[in-house]
């Protein structure tokens, strides 16, 4: 390699020096290479450069060389020495492969530090190879890799980068290359501009012209993204207005503007085009290019305005989007010459009725597309904000230093306010004011247009009144469109909001006051009171420190007074006063809403800057100066909206006016135009409307408004402590609570409406939830006491208490956050207060079961939200109350030995049966506590509690208590933890608890009981008389045993096998009773026991209630049940085989109803025949088996839709399956079963053709009946099923 230079053609020294312009010698190009490498590198190099080797072998050879360099066994210099022959050979293919290998090695060493001399030599080498088109791709890859190196790893210096850029500009003809090579070239230029922009800047115009030539006429979307980034980077390198980019700005923009608007349809079947590129990516990149430099403004704005006149919706939307995005990047000084044209274009989109049109066209014209309106509004806001940038310090000056005259002068004589003034001085705004004033002495343009349109529009049969209606409707549309424009402009900046409120809102409010003064009920006295109210308001604002510019305030007041006086002298004979008041209020609402959005925006910006909403905002008068117009008009706004709501002329108008009060009260506290008294007035008015009970639709709107206000208070809480004293928490929630507490003679529906309002308004934040919970608990206590002392209205009070407890348990407590200290305290208060109520037993003596249900539910949800310490406290208090109710001998049961307690448990439970009603409330609530406990919560006296629950679960007189007790026992078995050695004497072991609950407790109540406690114990018949009471107790015992089995199954305990064995035995043998009905009740309870074990419960034994859940417990239980069920089928006695199998299949249906289909499929070989047998047996019995049949059908459908496991199993039984489905198609007791059977029958078509086709005629014949089914859903499914079976003939 030392004898020749690596030139483009493999030539000698003279040619290479000519390429470098004679500035570089051979020593500067060649590396100081060591003597030739030993042979180990040669095989890897030959493996890569040999084009006949596979791609995998070539990659392996390159990877081996990289690994040796990274491990330090060889150096990069030694690699280049070994590659010398291939880098300088005249064979084009070998030279390209050699240079490509060197480039790939550099890519693999991109994170390895290299010496500066090595980087320099390699950079010059690859730069020189850019002239060799045979090795261009390798040279680009090597140069790009070196240019991307980080400085601490050895980066390309500025002089080398500039030299490589010069060589690239001389030798690269990008658009003549293939796509991959073009992409490498564009990445190369992008890297140069972004990483080495300062170094290559001296190339100046050559660089700009070279880049333009490289990117022109590019069409590939992958390359286009790079093109857009290159242009953006180029403008950053040459930002000056007299730089190279400025000289070529028109040509450069012409290149990129050809792609606007972007029209790109990605390839079908993927998330985008090439390499996942989407149209959104291209649009965003091109938009950034358009806005990258103000030098493009003079070419960009005319182009966008031209495209905005297009008839294509996409072009309009993109033009508006780009206009709004480019404005803040260009700046007001550049855009001032385009402001008029842009406003005219936006006016065309936002005010489509500004051009006179006929009345017929006005009424039939379709509204503008919502997307176009949204983009036009956003664009308008952006342009107004751009032209207000220079006024951002206006409100930072002292109030006394800037007068109203100065405000007007600055907004009209500087470019910063010109766009806003174009809006405010536009004829549409003036026409808006004129349409509200309806000056008889001045015929303004809107009225002229409407009169002309009305005169031309009516034909034969038309009336003058219809023409007037058309005129009013068209004028209303114009007003609404103009209000939308004003709202968008007010949202731009505080200054624009200030200007619109002072110049437009003040005038409109004056007109509305004048319209009210023309009412027959009002006169000059109303005008005087309005003026007096304004002066009083000004004084109040001054006292509160909320007005900071006296001269401006005086100007506003003079405007108001002049407007009122002007309106007082007018005639109202020719106008509909209420109609125009409603239109004016709609405009006012739009402006006030924009001001509120501006206030929230400022608060959000302050929070982002300072990390929280700064309290200093409220004390800074300069920050609030833009609110001065609204502060002055606040009292008039409140009075106007309240008066309009009180009139209640229409539903739509009332909703609009409620929204006005909502907007006024929803301002952030630190930037609110309302004083404390005014806010109190608004909330009090809304509260009274909510409590009035007259208009349901109006009350709904008021409730939604109060919820929105509450959310705003929560979102901006902590801004100003003085405002915390006034708000939803003080003006609404206490009065609603008072209304609920005082309601004693009306219907329950009214109380429920008030409770709904409470949970919607107060349920969204912890402090409000706390207040609501405390108030409702007080109501419960008072009502229970009243119910005990007054017997005349007891039923009403019980219903009211039940409604309150229902609201607590279902709507408020579930919204509490267990991680919030406030919510935890509120939940704990609910639980402890319930115990306090129970401890005073007299008020609960006459309470009904509905109160019991919801009080237990409230206790359960409340304990669920508490931590371990609080749960222990709640449990301890409940235990103390329970002990106070127990007899003396039962209270000391814990002092006897464990064995004696186990032997007496049944007798103890039976002896308590007579007195369970007295302690039932306490036991039921204790059960609600236990099901929600965290497993690590210490349960004191757990043996006593377990005995109570075991007894109540069987002998309780209320289904609520028996079920709750069973849930509690199941939870205790599920959550039982191994006690520490020092606590063994105080806690039961799990095995002892199981023995106490099952062997000595519930098993003893059954007609067939275990003789032994082992899994294979014998079963003997109990010949006791089966009376009605005994049957009920045994049914409850079976359900309780199933719940205990669920708790054991979820934790993976082996004793669940005893429970399952007992259930199967009961299904198989029933009882010794001769009464079939009683026997059926016990067997049905056993069948339902399987669904209890496998189905998810919302009230206990789930994650929310901290249950111990072992993964895949359902799968293990189902797998363990299949063999016993099949064995039981075989053991069915010959005398009663049909009845026994019937109950076994019912048990199977309950079992699969709670098992996921994927679990059934894992044992499909065993399960599918059982499912078919169940369908065959249950379809011939009574209608009560419809649910069981549906469960079996759904399990079968899981096989028919599973390609991997299910269908092969179903294919083995296709004939039997179809016969059973054809029977169910005519099942008369349930249309859902018929529909599901048809769906399964349609899915059978997907089974192997050889098994399905012979059944086609039989199926099509049977479907004729289903096509005439009396249910439409069944007929539709029959049509689809028939089409599927007919289609198999054409396979």
Structure description:
With 1291 residues, the protein is mainly α. Helix 32 packs parallel to helix 35 and helix 45 runs antiparallel to helix 48. The longest helix is centred in the middle third of the chain and has 34 residues, at 577-610. The N terminus is likely disordered.
DSSP strand content = under 5%
Tally of alpha and pi helices: 65
Helix content: 55-70%
Q: Over all CA atoms, what is the radius of gyration?
A: 43 Å
Overall strand count = 2
Give the spatial strand order of the biggest sheet: 1-2
Main sheet summary:
2 strands, antiparallel
Mean pLDDT: 77
Distance between the termini: 71 Å
| Structural class by helix and strand composition | mainly alpha
Overall outline:
globular
Short structural description:
With 1291 residues, the protein is an all-alpha fold. The protein is built from 65 helices and two strands. A hairpin with an 8-residue loop joins strand 1 and strand 2.
């Amino acid at each position: 390699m030392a004898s020749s230079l690596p030139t483009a053609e493999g030539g000698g020294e003279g040619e290479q020096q000519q390429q470098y312009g004679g500035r570089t010698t051979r020593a500067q190009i060649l590396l100081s290479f060591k003597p030739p490498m030993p042979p180990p590198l040669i095989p890897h190099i030959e493996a890569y450069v040999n084009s006949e080797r596979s791609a995998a072998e070539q990659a392996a050879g390159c990877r081996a060389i990289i690994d040796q360099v990274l491990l330090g066994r060889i150096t990069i210099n030694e690699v280049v020495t070994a590659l010398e022959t291939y880098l300088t050979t005249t064979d084009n293919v070998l030279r390209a492969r050699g240079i490509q290998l060197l480039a790939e090695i550099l890519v693999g060493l991109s994170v390895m530090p290299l010496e500066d001399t090595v980087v320099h030599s390699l950079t010059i080498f690859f730069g020189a190879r850019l002239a060799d088109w045979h090795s261009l791709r390798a040279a680009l890859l090597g140069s790009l890799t070196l240019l991307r190196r980080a400085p601490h790893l050895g980066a390309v210096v500025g002089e080398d980068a500039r030299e490589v850029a010069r060589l690239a500009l001389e030798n690269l003809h990008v658009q003549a290359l293939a796509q991959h090579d073009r992409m490498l070239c564009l990445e190369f230029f992008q890297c140069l501009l972004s990483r080495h922009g300062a170094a290559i800047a001296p190339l100046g115009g050559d660089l700009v012209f070279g880049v333009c030539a490289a990117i022109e006429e590019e069409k590939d979307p992958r390359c286009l993204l790079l093109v857009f980034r290159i242009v953006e980077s180029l403008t950053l390198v040459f930002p000056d207005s007299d730089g190279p980019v400025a000289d070529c700005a028109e040509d450069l923009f012409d290149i990129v503007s050809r792609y606007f608007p972007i029209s790109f349809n990605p390839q079908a079947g993927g998330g985008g085009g090439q390499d996942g590129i989407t149209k959104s990516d291209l649009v965003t990149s091109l938009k950034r290019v358009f806005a990258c430099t103000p030098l493009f403004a003079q070419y960009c704005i005319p182009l966008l305005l031209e495209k905005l006149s297009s008839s294509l919706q996409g072009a309009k939307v993109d033009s508006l989007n780009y206009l709004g995005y480019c404005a803040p990047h260009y700046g007001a000084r550049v855009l001032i010459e385009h402001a008029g044209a842009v406003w005219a274009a936006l006016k065309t989109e936002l005010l489509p009725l500004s051009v006179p049109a006929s009345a017929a066209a006005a009424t039939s014209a379709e509204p503008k597309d919502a997307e176009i309106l949204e983009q036009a509004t956003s664009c308008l806001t952006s342009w107004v904000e751009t032209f207000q940038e220079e006024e951002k310090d206006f409100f930072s000056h002292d109030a006394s230093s800037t007068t109203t005259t100065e405000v007007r002068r600055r907004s009209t004589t500087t470019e910063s306010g010109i766009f806003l003034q174009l809006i405010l001085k536009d004829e549409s705004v003036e026409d808006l004011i004129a349409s509200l004033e309806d000056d008889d002495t001045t015929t303004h343009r809107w009225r002229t247009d409407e009169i002309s349109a009305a005169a031309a529009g009516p034909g034969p049969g038309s009336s003058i009144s219809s023409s007037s209606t058309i005129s009013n409707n068209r004028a209303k549309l114009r007003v609404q469109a103009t209000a939308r424009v004003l709202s968008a402009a007010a949202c731009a900046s505080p200054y624009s909001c200030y200007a619109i409120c002072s110049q437009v809102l003040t005038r409109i409010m004056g007109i509305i006051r004048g319209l009210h003064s023309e009412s027959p009920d009002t006169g000059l006295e109303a005008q005087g009171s309005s003026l007096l109210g304004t002066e009083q308001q000004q004084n109040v604002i001054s006292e509160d420190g909320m007005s900071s510019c006296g001269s401006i305030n005086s100007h506003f007041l003079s405007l108001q007074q002049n407007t009122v006086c002007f309106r007082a002298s007018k005639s109202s004979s020719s106008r509909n006063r209420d109609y125009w008041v409603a239109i004016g209020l709609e405009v006012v609402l739009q402006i006030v809403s924009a001001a509120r959005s501006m206030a929230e925006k400022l608060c959000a910006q302050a929070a982002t800057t300072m990390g929280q909403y700064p309290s200093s905002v409220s004390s800074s008068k300069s920050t609030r100066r833009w609110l001065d117009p609204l502060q002055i008009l606040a009292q008039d706004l409140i009075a106007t909206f309240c008066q309009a709501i009180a009139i209640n002329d229409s539903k739509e108008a009332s909703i609009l006016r409620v929204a006005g009060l909502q907007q006024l009260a929803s301002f952030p506290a630190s930037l609110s135009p309302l004083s404390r008294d005014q806010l109190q007035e608004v909330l009090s008015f809304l509260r009274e409307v909510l409590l009035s009970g007259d208009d349901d639709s109006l009350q709904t709107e008021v409730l939604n408004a109060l919820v929105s206000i509450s959310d705003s208070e929560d979102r901006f809480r902590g801004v100003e402590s003085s405002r915390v004293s006034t708000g939803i928490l003080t003006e609404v929630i206490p009065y609603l609570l008072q209304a609920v507490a005082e309601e004693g003679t009306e219907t329950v529906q009214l109380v429920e409406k008030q409770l709904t309002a409470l949970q919607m308004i107060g349920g969204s934040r912890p402090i409000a939830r706390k207040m609501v919970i405390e108030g409702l608990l007080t109501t419960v206590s008072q009502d229970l006491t009243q119910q005990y002392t007054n017997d005349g209205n007891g039923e009403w009070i019980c219903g009211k208490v039940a409604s309150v407890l229902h609201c607590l348990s279902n709507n408020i407590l579930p919204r509490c956050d267990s991680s919030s200290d406030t919510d935890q305290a509120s939940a704990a208060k609910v639980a402890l207060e319930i115990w306090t109520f129970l401890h005073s037993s007299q008020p609960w003596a006459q309470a009904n079961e509905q109160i019991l249900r919801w009080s237990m539910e409230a206790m359960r949800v409340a304990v669920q939200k508490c931590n371990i310490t609080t749960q222990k406290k709640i449990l301890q208090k409940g235990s103390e109350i329970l002990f106070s109710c127990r007899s003396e001998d039962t209270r000391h049961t814990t002092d006897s030995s464990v064995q004696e307690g186990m032997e007496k448990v049944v007798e103890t439970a039976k002896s308590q049966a007579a007195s369970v009603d007295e302690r039932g409330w306490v036991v039921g609530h204790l059960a609600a506590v236990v099901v929600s406990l965290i497993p690590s919560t210490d349960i004191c006296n757990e043996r006593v509690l377990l005995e109570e629950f075991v007894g109540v679960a069987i002998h309780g007189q209320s289904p609520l208590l028996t079920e709750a007790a069973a849930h509690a026992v199941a939870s205790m078995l599920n959550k039982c933890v191994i006690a520490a050695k020092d606590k063994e004497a105080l806690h039961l072991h799990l095995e002892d608890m199981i023995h106490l609950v099952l062997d000595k407790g519930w098993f003893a109540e059954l007609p067939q009981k275990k003789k032994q406690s082992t899994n294979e114990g014998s079963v003997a018949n109990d010949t006791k008389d089966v009376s009605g009471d005994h049957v009920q107790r045994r049914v409850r015992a079976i359900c309780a045993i199933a719940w205990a089995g669920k708790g054991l199954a979820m934790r993976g305990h082996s004793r669940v096998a005893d429970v399952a064995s007992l259930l199967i035995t009961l299904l198989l043998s029933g009882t010794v009773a001769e009464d079939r009905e009683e026997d059926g009740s016990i067997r049905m309870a056993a069948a339902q026991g399987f669904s209890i074990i496998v189905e998810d419960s919302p009230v206990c034994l789930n994650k929310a209630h901290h249950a111990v859940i072992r993964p895949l417990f359902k799968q293990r239980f189902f797998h363990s049940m299949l063999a016993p069920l099949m064995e039981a089928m075989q053991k069915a006695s010959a005398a009663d085989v049909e009845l026994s199998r019937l109950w076994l299949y019912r048990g199977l249906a309950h079992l699969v109803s709670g098992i996921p289909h994927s679990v059934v499929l894992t044992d499909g070989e065993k399960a599918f025949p059982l499912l078919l047998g169940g369908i065959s047996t249950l379809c011939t019995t009574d209608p009560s088996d419809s649910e069981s049949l549906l469960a079996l059908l759904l399990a079968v459908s899981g096989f028919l839709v599973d390609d991997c496991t299910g269908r092969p199993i179903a294919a083995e039984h296709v004939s039997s399956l179809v016969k059973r489905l054809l029977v169910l198609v005519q099942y008369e007791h349930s249309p859902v079963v018929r529909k599901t059977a048809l769906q399964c029958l349609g899915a059978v078509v997907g089974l192997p053709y050889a098994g399905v086709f012979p059944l086609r005629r039989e199926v099509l014949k049977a479907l004729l009946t289903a096509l005439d089914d009396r249910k439409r859903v069944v007929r539709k499914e029959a049509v689809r099923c028939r089409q599927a079976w007919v289609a198999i003939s054409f396979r």
